[in-house]
Design a protein that fits this description.
Distance between the termini: 12 Å
Organism: Methanohalophilus portucalensis FDF-1
Transmembrane segments: 7-37, 78-97, 109-131
GO molecular function: 4 iron, 4 sulfur cluster binding; metal ion binding; oxidoreductase activity
Strand content: under 5%
Number of helices: 10
Pfam families: Fer4_18, Fer4_5
Radius of gyration: 18 Å
Keywords: 4Fe-4S, Electron transport, Iron, Iron-sulfur, Membrane, Metal-binding, Transmembrane, Transmembrane helix, Transport
Structural class: mainly alpha
Length: 205
């Protein structure tokens, strides 16, 4: 996790609230989407755990009030994640196509991006408030896209001979992953919490 990570949640407020008056702020969403897709080519879901503004919101704000219940397995299923990714992209493309080449087109596109930010952030807060604060990350369309593109790039590795099976790594994993099998799980967001928690320095990237 980077030092700037804990402050990135402010960007969510800027877009969600400021965007109601100044729709062009919605283009910050586009920048985030392009950046996360670009970084996923080399580092998988690294963006989620280090530079995602909403991830920062979940970790440093929502986690303080979350009920911290286990994330339902159905949210981790591709049977839910892929349709949600397709639905989100279809809705966004359709809404933009309708206003394409109309008057004030760029402002209207900003409105579309701001509204999508507000809707998905609201859903994320509802899920994260009841379950683990990172519950949305398991079903997030952009997280799913990163998984598809990046696969197992930049994997977490374990020196098994050093592991004492204390499970401290799994207790701090925001994605509720089984760290011992992490090499086979591309949903690792590379936040580094497990590495910091390991008393034997058995984990590394």
């Amino acid at each position: 996790m980077m030092k700037i990570t804990r402050y990135l949640w402010l960007l969510v407020l800027v877009v969600s609230l400021g965007g109601l008056w100044y729709p062009y702020l919605g283009y910050l969403m586009a920048v985030v989407m392009i950046t996360l897709l670009a970084t996923s080519v080399l580092r998988g879901r690294w963006f989620c755990g280090n530079l995602c503004p909403r991830g920062s919101l979940y970790d440093f704000v929502l986690s303080k009030v979350s009920r911290k219940q286990d994330i339902p397995n159905i949210l981790k299923s591709f049977w839910v994640r892929i349709p949600l990714l397709v639905l989100m992209m279809t809705v966004m493309i359709y809404r933009i196509s309708v206003i394409f080449a109309t008057q004030n087109m760029f402002e209207k596109i900003g409105v579309v991006l701001v509204s999508m930010c507000i809707v998905t952030t609201t859903l994320a807060i509802m899920l994260g408030g009841f379950y683990n604060s990172r519950a949305w990350c398991t079903v997030c369309p952009m997280g799913t896209a990163q998984r598809i593109i990046g696969g197992n790039r930049y994997q977490l590795k374990m020196a098994h001979e050093l592991c004492i099976d204390c499970k401290k790594c799994e207790k701090v994993c925001p994605m509720e992953l089984t760290v011992r099998d992490i090499g086979n799980n591309p949903d690792c967001i590379k936040c580094g919490r497990c590495v910091e928690a390991c008393p034997k320095d058995a984990l590394y990237f």
